[in-house]
Amino acid sequence: VKNLHTPVKEGKCTACHNPHGNAQPKLLAESGKALCLSCHKEKAEELNKAVVHQPVKEGECTTCHLAHGSNERNNLIKPVAELCQGCHDPTIEKIKTAHGGYAVTGSNCVTCHNPHASDQPKLVNKVQHAPFAEKACESCHVGFGKGGEIQLVAEGDKLCATCHDDVDKIMAQPNIHPPIKLGKGCISCHDPHASRNEKMLIDSVPNLCYSCHEDLQAKFASDKAHSPVKDGNCLACHEKHSGPNKGLLTVKRSQLCYSCHSAEKARFTSESAHKPVADGDCYRCHDAHATENDNMLVKSGNKLCLDCHSLTAPAFAQAHHNFPMEKSNCANCHDPHSTPRSSMALLYPDQHSPFKVRNCGACHASSKDFSTIKDGKALCLQCHTKSDNLISKKNVHKAVTMPGECINCHSPHTGFTSNILAKPDGQVCFNCHEKSGFDKKFKHKPATESCSTCHEVHSSDNANLLNGDDEIKLCLKCHNADKTHMHPMGKNFKDPRNGERLVCTSCHSPHSSDYENILLADKQRELCTSCHSL
User: How far apart are CA 475 and CA 459, in angstroms?
Assistant: First the structure.
């Protein structure tokens, strides 16, 4: 089957079926439309519209849709025309009259009619082409051909150009969207009668784009896709009709990325830039849409760098003191974009002292491999003697104890900060901690700037590596909650969910939340009922 229902595709049978049994047929979790609406909540609003399609009103979704999958879009039982004409005979006089006498047998009914509900009579879609709304069919049609065949006053985009002056301007551009130029003209994307979408589009973006670019849809679904791709915003980068640039890009390729990444442009143009960056050739290293690599890199690790830089070149070997660099990640030491002009060879500006003076022997036993004179943190502690105190407290940061120890967070060569973090402060933590917990709609400001505002980074005598022994006092360093919060908390008040002391994080997320004031749930009801029974 070409199109599987999402729960089936994800193997979530229990989304619809009760595994233990109940009174519903086929062990369904709920009956009729209630089951479908438990996921398709947006469809519930349609039931309140002026006109509701009879099967929808009766909750008979399976009249038109297959529950598990289909070879048709939207899991339809049959192609649209065949499905609709199973109930609505296009040859009867009533339907002929309603369509101005035009033959509609085999037509895609849902281009004009909403199959679920509409505020318009006869379920007509809300966005209507002016001649259609005014029943001025002669604006586009010259009458009936043989057997009621539809005839137009002009073909393709020439018909649209009789009213829409911008069509000629669109067609005069050097690069024209292929569906317009080679397909059916404007009606490749726009319906000439009625639509559920703005601008008379036959489907919403990006679904409309995927009707031709179907091969890209799976690739673009990657969680590492470019933000506009994730958002389905194709028009952020591409013109919809035509334009002067190849690929229908909104601006020249060398400047397109800077339309959004203006801060990066300011940095790259004021610093010593990597040649592809200086040339505006972001696509040399990054895919504009999606890859399975971090940062949308076209290749992973140093494979990308080796497309241009040769390991066997004498200058390369000399610069790296003959260490075997085949499996090294070049970006551990070199910024792939730009560095301050005072930094050579794109090396990060903050450098470990032995590396800075090229004293490799301070840490490495031999240039034939990357073996070190001591293992793990014992190597670091031979110079950083006071650092042993940093990990002497009751709760030690797991990153310090797991394989890699110090270099899980710090670079042994070059870094982004004075303490040579392997990534900029605030990002290095995401090597281990899932970033999604920090990316919700409402964010706690310290969580976006520096984790060390609230947490000790090496060890702490407090739970969760907090840098205070009382969570409430820690929050009160920044928040004047005594004046703004009436809810009691502290040692005399228990959280009924876990029996622990009621504290700020009993109601608020310390990192981010989809609810205002970084609350854990909706304050109107859900947050309160999580503790207080009604």
Answer: 20
List 175's β-bridge partners, or say none.
243
Beta strands at 395-396 and 69-70: parallel, antiparallel or unpaired: unpaired
State which amino acid sits at residue 320: H
What are all long-range contacts of 35-41, with beta carbons under 8 Å and residues at least 24 apart?
A: 36/61, 39/6, 39/7, 39/15
- pLDDT of amino acid 526: 92
372 contacts: CB under 8 Å, gap ≥ 6? 363, 364, 365, 379
Q: Of the candidates 353, 226, 211, which has an alpha carbon nearest to the alpha carbon of residue 288?
A: 226
Contact call for residues 461 and 395 (beta carbons, < 8 A): yes
Q: Where are the beta strands (DSSP E) in 475-530?
A: 490-494, 501-502, 512-513
Considering just the CA atoms, what is the radius of gyration of the chain in Å?
Answer: 32
Give the separation between CA 167 and CA 162, rounded to whole angstroms: 9
The CA-based dihedral angle spanning residues 458, 465, 473, 430, taken in that order and rounded to the nearest 10 degrees: 90
Residues 108 and 83: their CA atoms lie apart, in Å, by: 10
Written as one string, the DSSP assignment of 430-442 is GGTS-GGGG-SSE
| Spatial separation of the C-alpha atoms in residues 49 and 265, rounded to whole Å | 49
pTM: 0.74
Q: What's the pLDDT score for residue 41?
A: 87
Q: Could you tell me what percent of the chain has a pLDDT over 90?
A: 71
Collect contacts of 470-478 with beta carbons under 8 A, ≥24 apart: 471/503, 471/504, 471/505, 472/503, 472/504, 475/504, 478/446
Partnered with residue 513 across adjacent β-strands are 442
User: What is the pLDDT at residue 455?
Assistant: 95
Distance CA 189, CA 178 (A): 11
For 414, counting Cβ atoms within 10 Å of its Cβ (0-12 exposed, 13-18 middle, 19+ buried), the class is buried
User: Above 90 in pLDDT, residue 116?
Assistant: yes
